[in-house]
Write a structure and sequence with these properties.
mainly alpha; binds fe (ii) ion
Length: about 160
């Protein structure tokens, strides 16, 4: 039996993942318009992934026969100073998502909700990877400096496959 509080938190997470998808979509568009093709590619993929997370949460709620409600979301930021800012904002956002996932996990464990605990493991692992990727890119950009930023952007694009 899933606790009502876990159901409430999972529904809030649906909105948060959806908001994340939009945040990354706005970054992708900004990057593409400004000629940062690698970053754009990375962020389009990121937006798709967050949408996948949202859908995963919806499916779980449906599988356990609990109500799903889709909430509205805030407008994302649409303009950035440079790609360093894009990834700094992304890391900060991922840290917020991690805290939110950990909070649901804590509640699921506290209420002996084995199904939710097992389900949430994917998200715990996913957040480790997300934070690590953002950290890596932040270092990449920092080490590149303004001269090699073009190459850093290319490498960021290559992280999600293809040329
Ligand atoms: Fe996510
Ligand atoms: Fe994420």
């Amino acid at each position: 039996m899933v606790s009502k509080n876990v159901v409430k938190l999972l529904n809030e997470q649906v909105a948060l993942e959806s908001e994340s998808s939009n945040i990354y979509l706005a970054m992708a568009v900004w990057a593409e318009v400004n000629g940062w093709r690698g970053t754009a590619k990375f962020m389009y993929k990121q937006a798709e992934e967050e949408r996948g997370h949202m859908q995963k949460l919806i499916s779980f709620l449906m599988d356990i026969g609990e109500p799903v409600s889709i909430a509205g979301m805030k407008d994302p930021v649409n303009s950035f100073k440079d790609i360093a800012e894009v990834f700094a904002v992304s890391l900060k956002h991922e840290l917020k998502l991690t805290a939110s996932i950990h909070n649901i996990m804590t509640e699921a464990r506290r209420t002996n909700d084995y199904a939710a605990t097992s389900f949430l493991k994917f998200f715990v692992d996913e957040q480790v990877e997300e934070e690590s990727n953002m950290e890596k890119i932040i270092h990449l950009i920092k080490n590149a400096g303004p001269i090699s930023l073009y190459l850093a952007d290319k490498e960021i694009g290559a992280m999600v496959g293809g040329a």
